[in-house]
Design a protein that fits this description.
The complex is a heterotrimer of chains A (291), B (254) and C (365).
Chain A: H1 2-31, H2 38-53, H3 62-83, H4 93-115, E1 130-133, E2 136-139, H5 140-162, H6 164-174, H7 176-181, H8 186-211, H9 221-232, H10 237-257, H11 262-277
Antiparallel strand pairs in A: 1-2
Chain B: E1 4-13, E2 16-26, E3 31-35, H1 42-49, E4 57-62, E5 65-66, H2 72-75, E6 80-82, H3 95-102, H4 111-116, H5 119-138, H6 154-167, E7 172-176, H7 184-199, E8 204-208, H8 212-218, E9 221-226, E10 229-234, H9 236-240, H10 243-250
Parallel strand pairs in B: 3-8, 3-9, 6-7, 7-8
Antiparallel strand pairs in B: 1-2, 1-4, 4-5, 9-10
Chain C: H1 10-13, H2 19-38, H3 41-66, H4 74-90, H5 95-117, H6 122-142, H7 144-147, E1 153-154, E2 158-160, E3 163-165, H8 171-193, H9 196-206, H10 208-213, H11 218-244, E4 246-247, H12 254-267, H13 272-300, H14 310-325, H15 329-343
Antiparallel strand pairs in C: 1-4, 2-3
The chains are: A mainly alpha (291), B alpha/beta (254), C mainly alpha (365).
Chain lengths: 291, 254, 365
């Protein structure tokens, strides 16, 4: 029973990683670049929601604040693409990575100035409530996190593989020029994807802040989520979620069964192992360059 | 003995047979051209010789060496140099630096002597420079010597790639579509150069080319390919009048 | 307008183009040697710090700037160099031996790390090295028997040719030690770049396929690049530890790794100058900020408020501006300005134009 409890809380943590990883994969799928600031997006989303909801700030009702913050983050994502990332059109992947890392620095700084450096948690209707399944007692937040994550992943997966826009996005990344010729509005598609990633990050942030507390440095969680995305195989949405769950579960178990110090190490050790033995993640999608 | 021999070489990508039981040999001192429609496997033959791909069966021998036993980076050391269909130059280096990289196979120095730039390294570098300057003179690249590749026009890049291959001082030069994308004047220059490379430098040339004017102008023998297999082999005029070749290009007369 | 007439191949083989350039570098070295007499102890310490960062930047520049392998984990090698140096000294090895050994050990570890890393490209390599940096941070804590863990270690004074040197007691001597190491490493770096090995690095960076076709063993070149890069970084780490006086796992956290990469990007990837320019920005930014904060404070009559994270925020903005508008870094900008003066009035705006290409994925689906 104890192990099960550990598993569930690990899964709930893993869902948050998975959601951030989802953001990485979304942007990677559509633009072939990596947004290292995704974790900072999540942190910012959490703070925006806190700013709207919490009694100390604006004090809006929770269910009003949530959609507003998601929209705000989506707009922010779009603007970022429009005015910063788009200038990088045609630059190398690594340049975009470095750019987004720098962006993360700036976001953390701005969040610190606005909301301070004290950890804060989101006041939400689930707080403190519990659900009992048989003999198992689960926090309401944990259940909400798991349910929302599964729904979101499924929705995005369907969107990418079934709708015309979703397929256009994949095309836009695989061969920009050809996508242009086929009438795919590549730039608009990219803007949309960044908006989507902003929204997903905001949802991740809300879930994270409901479960625990955020401070500006929470954004660094993005690194762990990135590890999750790579473990799951970049470019696959269910893979990202799976990677997130693996990382989320492995942490408490390593701490429990090896030693406390190892919970930090375990995800990265796993990541290195995956990279060494399957250099492109568990679901490989890369082939050698053709000449 | 022929300089380069391919014997029953077959390469498959998944279910697709890219090269199908192909055999041919290139003699010392000749210009040998491979022609064929797109997707016939011409560039793939080059990539096999360069050891980027490993055939499922068959033999590739060069100058008495079994190339299939070697790794890709050793092929150049036997004296095989090549160009690429979609130019693969070192973009952020100058023309001179690109050509000096071509001298790499003659490197006699090691990490420590290079770290201290001993007189022997200095001597080697001066010799390299002398050799490279001869190539620059030969291909009229003086004006571009210190220019970065990134800003050069297409036609010049094509020539720089040939120059880089020549800088390795090869026995066999593989030219992958040397005239594609070149203007009429540039193609005429290229034709003259290929002739000179063979005549003056004594380098054997194996090339893939679509421009039949260039092919019949410079090559001694031509191999026509379709679907990875050999269609015809002979002098340019023989191959051009071969019914199988005409059929592959123009389709079956009905 | 200055024109260089070339009459001899040696002109291209020497590290300087002509007497004018040589004299500029000599003046710079003379200034560096005279620095302790020109500035006070505080700024001398800052200058030492800049030199150590420049040395670390040179290390990463070999790998990222010249071989094109982005590493987000070089703090791990800084740590390795630092701990190797101190542990060797504690075991009774004299500094003059322990210091180069620390570099060599780190270099060998780097080559071993390179073996699995060779299969990784671009972003995957960056993330693998990032993971390694985080792991090393934790490993230092776990192996506290040797490393002192979170409690850290203290650097003893070191003996160089009979002089006892320590950061606080003899700052001038420590500065000269750092300057000497930096100059020697820079000279070695210049030598490698004008020899076949350096050219093979550049070849691997720009096109692995054609490097192979030219007879360059790509894996071997990358492994050597890793080794050289890590050895230099190890030396920088050893100096960094001595400079800090006391250090623990946090001295070499993953943030330092990221900062190091950002630094050489700002300075200008693919040039030795870039490492120095970047180090100047990193080293003097905190000073610059505190001075400008005083100014602003005096202007508005307000008190000095400490804003946490300001440094990183400003740093991030600088970096973004550079990547967007001057991807070649400070060195690139400097080259443009210099060319403008040299060619006046014939400079054209598109002289440094780069080719942009459409993205074409190497993914299958």
């Amino acid at each position: 029973m104890d192990t099960l409890q550990l598993l569930i809380s690990g899964l709930a943590n893993g869902c948050v990683y998975g959601l951030i990883a989802l953001g990485f994969v979304l942007i990677y799928k559509a633009t072939e670049s990596v947004n290292f600031a995704q974790g900072d997006f999540m942190m910012l989303g959490a703070f925006v929601t806190i700013g709207l909801t919490n009694a100390g700030y604006m004090g809006l009702p929770f269910w009003v604040a949530v959609p507003i913050s998601i929209v705000i983050m989506a707009i922010l994502g779009y603007l970022l693409d429009r005015f910063v990332i788009r200038l990088m059109f045609g630059e190398s992947q690594t340049a975009v990575v470095i750019l987004t890392i720098a962006l993360g620095f700036v976001i953390r700084f701005v969040a610190g100035v606005i909301w301070g450096h004290e950890p804060q948690s989101l006041q939400n209707p689930f707080a403190g409530k519990e659900v009992a399944f048989g003999g198992l007692v689960l926090g309401m937040e944990d259940v909400a996190v798991i349910v929302v994550t599964i729904l979101l992943t499924w929705g995005l997966y369907e969107f990418f593989n079934r709708t015309k826009l979703g397929l256009a996005m994949q095309g836009a990344s695989q061969n920009q020029l050809a996508a242009y010729y086929m009438g795919v509005p590549v730039k608009r598609v990219q803007g949309f994807i960044w908006a989507l990633a902003g929204g997903v990050a905001c949802i991740a942030g809300i879930l994270f802040a409901a479960k625990g507390a955020v401070d500006p440095n929470t954004g660094l969680l993005g690194i762990k989520a990135f590890a999750a995305a790579v473990i799951g195989g970049f470019g696959s949405l269910p893979g990202a979620l799976a990677g997130g769950l693996i990382v989320g579960v492995i942490e408490p178990f390593a701490a429990r069964y090896i030693a406390a110090g190892y919970s930090q190490i375990a995800p990265y050790a796993l990541l290195l192992a995956v990279l060494i033995f399957r250099p492109h993640g568990l679901f490989s999608q890369v082939r050698v360059k053709k000449v | 003995m022929s300089l380069l021999e391919l014997e029953n070489v077959t390469l498959k990508f998944g279910g697709l047979t890219a090269v199908d039981n192909l055999s041919f040999s290139v003699e010392q001192g000749e210009v040998f051209a491979i022609v064929g429609p797109n997707g016939a496997g011409k560039s793939t033959v080059f990539n096999l010789i360069s050891r980027f791909y490993t055939p499922v069966n068959g033999k590739i021998r060069f100058d008495g060496h079994d190339l299939l036993k070697e790794k890709a980076s050793s092929v150049a050391n036997f004296g095989v140099a090549r160009t690429f269909q979609n130019i693969e130059l070192f973009e952020h280096a100058t023309v001179l630096e690109n050509l000096l990289v071509g001298r790499h196979r003659h490197r006699g120095s090691n990490f420590l002597t290079e770290l201290f730039f001993t007189p022997s390294v200095r001597k080697q570098e001066l010799q390299n420079r002398h050799f490279v300057e001869e190539v620059i003179d030969f291909l009229d690249l003086q004006a571009y010597r210190e220019k970065r590749i990134a800003g050069l026009p297409y036609g010049v890049r094509k020539v720089v790639e040939v120059a880089r291959a020549l800088a390795t001082d090869p026995k066999l030069l593989l030219l992958d579509e040397p005239a594609s994308g070149l203007s009429v004047e540039e193609t005429t220059d290229m034709r003259w150069w290929i002739d000179e490379i063979r005549r003056q430098m004594g380098i054997t040339v194996l090339m893939v080319e679509h421009d039949m004017g260039l092919v019949s102008g410079v090559s001694d023998r031509v191999l026509a390919m379709a679907d990875g297999a050999r269609l015809a082999l002979g002098t340019p005029s023989e191959v051009q009048s071969d019914p199988a070749v005409i059929e592959a290009y123009l389709g079956k007369a009905s | 307008m200055r024109i260089i007439f070339k009459t001899d191949y040696m002109q291209d083989l020497r590290p300087w183009k002509d007497g004018y350039q040589l004299s500029l570098y000599l003046i710079l070295i003379a200034l560096a040697v005279a620095a302790p007499f020109l500035i006070d102890v505080f700024f001398l310490g800052e200058l030492t710090n800049v030199l150590i960062w420049a040395l670390a930047g040179l290390g990463l520049m070999v790998l990222t700037g010249h071989t094109g392998q982005a590493s987000l984990g070089h703090a791990a090698f800084l740590a390795m160099g630092c701990y190797a140096n101190i542990i060797l000294m504690e075991a009774g090895v004299p500094f003059m031996l322990a210091f180069p050994l620390a570099g060599i050990i780190t270099g060998i570890v780097g080559m071993i790390v390179a073996i699995p890393a060779l299969r990784l490209h671009g972003i995957y390599l960056a993330i693998a090295t990032l993971a390694m940096s985080i792991l090393v941070d934790d490993i230092i804590v776990l192996t506290d028997h040797w490393t002192g863990g979170v409690g850290g270690k203290f650097a003893p004074p070191v003996n160089v040719f009979g002089f006892m040197i320590d950061r606080w007691g003899t700052p001038t001597a420590f500065y000269y030690l750092t300057l000497g190491v930096t100059i020697l490493v820079t000279l070695g770096y210049i030598n490698l770049l004008r020899a076949p090995l350096g050219r093979s690095f550049i070849a691997v960076r720009d096109s692995e396929v054609s490097a192979q076709a030219m007879g360059i063993d790509v894996s071997r070149s990358k492994a050597i690049s890793f080794g050289v890069s890590c050895a230099i970084t190890g030396l920088a780490g050893a100096l960094m530890g001595l400079f800090a006086g006391a250090f623990n796992n946090e001295t070499f956290s993953v943030v330092i790794s990221i900062q190091l990469l950002m630094m050489i990007v700002i300075g200008g990837l693919g040039s030795i100058h870039g490492a120095f320019f970047g180090a100047i920005v990193i080293g003097f930014l905190p000073q610059f900020l505190s001075i400008s904060k005083e100014w602003v404070g005096a202007l508005f009559g307000g008190s000095n408020v400490a804003i946490p994270g300001l440094e990183f925020g400003i740093f991030g903005v600088i970096l973004i501006v550079f990547i967007l508008f001057e991807p070649m870094g400070i060195y690139g900008r400097w080259l443009k300005i210099r060319t403008w003066f040299e060619l006046f009035p014939f400079y054209r705006k598109d002289m440094f134009k780069r080719q942009k290409s459409y993205l074409k994925t190497e993914r299958l689906r």
